[in-house]
Amino acid sequence: MASDTAKRRIVLVEDEPDLRDNYVLALGRAGFEVDPHGTAVSAAEAIARRVPDVAILDIGLGPDAEAGFELCRSLRAAHPRLPILFLSARDSELDIVSGLRLGADDYLTKEASLAQLVARVHTLLRRVEAFAAPPDESARHEVGPLALDRERLEATWHGTPIGLTVSEFHLVACLARYPGQVRSRVQLMEAAGLVLDEQTITAHVKRIRAKFVVLDPAFAGIQTVYGLGYRWLARLDY
Questions:
Q1: For 126-144, what is each residue's pLDDT tens digit?
Q2: For residue 152, what are the domain limits?
Q3: What is the CATH number of the domain that holds 194?
Q4: Do residues 19 and 123 both lie within one domain?
Q5: Tens digit of pLDDT for each residue in 151-179?
Q6: CA–CA dist 170, 164 (Å, integer)
Q7: Which residues lie closer than 8 Å to 173 by C-beta, 6 or more apart?
Q8: How many distinct structural domains can be found in the chain?
């Protein structure tokens, strides 16, 4: 990805024309190229033709109250490292957790200001850029059967790719950097660039565990330390 935000492309999916225009204007003024869509179908077709740097999705689109969730599911399956941000009027914990479990990297309600939206997009992009620096000795990190490649944002377990999202990769990297040490939810949020409540971390950890279990049903590398946070167990501990 180029370093100039003017070359960064965002696919925006919002079915309310006035809101869509406001978001396009704000993001455009921030230097982004915005490709707006009113339906999940047109957005999916556009992304299939050209993958953007960030996708911003509403949940309810037209008569389909779950269209954004389904679009997120399909995009995450096709593009594991595409930063995805939900922007929705729905602010229930269930919706937020559902969005994150489907693979979104962040969730913002429409009560947030346009400045907050722009800031979240910059945060997502910075997290991708942080691992695009020239390779060095810390680019790869191994803890037992877990191997992390910070340059490529890739993780493998016993040599098999796990398929983590950007946020999930940051969380695993934060935990695995110091095996055995407890990382609080606040520390994990900071590592992943998330600024939501602590439930978002819980949702991400559940999804991460599920991905490891698919590859290894006996996986128990992430331990919950109740009241404190989580830790990555050293190889001999699991």
A1: 777 765 555 455 567 888 8
A2: 140-237
A3: 1.10.10.10
A4: yes
A5: 778 899 999 999 888 888 889 998 998 88
A6: 9
A7: 141, 148, 150, 191
A8: 2
